[in-house]
Amino acid sequence: MPLTVLLVDDEPLVRAGLRAVLSAQPDIEVVGEAADGAAVIPLVRQLRPDVVAMDVRMPLLDGIEATRAVLRSVSEPPKILVITTFENDEYVYGALRAGADGFLLKRSRPAEIVNAVRLVAEGDSLLFPAAVRRLAAEYGNTSAREAMDRAALTEREAEVLRLMTRGLSNAEIAVRLVVGTETVKSHVSAVLAKLGARDRTQAVIAAYESGFVSPG
Asked: Second label for 199, Cα 20 to 30 Å away, from 126, 164, 176, 205?
């Protein structure tokens, strides 16, 4: 089965460019388009895409609120890849914090666009650049630090989280720690459960906001 994608952007040229790049891949199918976040929920329910590639800035409902709406109201929601012009845009950080799974720069090369969609769909790696890490660290607060303390991660779980913040996949972490991939998956699941994180992105945000890791 092909990987299905819904495109959401108020610029027709951006949608056309993304469609051309993604549709050229034999394992990816663009199943729909929308010009605003307000149209996302009915389309997600109708088309059941694996990934929503969504502009972070739109006139009626931006990518942050659209992400929140999808995660709140759709059972088994798709992965959400936010699209932006600037990587240090606070809207991007807001969308990631709201539950988006990664982000894509509009100026990205075709191969990077395809890779971003596949990475987000697989869900075991991150699109989390230095600029967004710095934003997350700037939003650090006492409650985030207290939540990390309450999580009481084991030494191995803490090590896995540090490697997650560097964007490593489960397979890459397994090689680094010289353990099996299934063992890494178990550790990742434990980290998410202890932090109350929906996915890897949320766990990494918690790591930066709490000061568990620094953006340096």
From this structure: 176
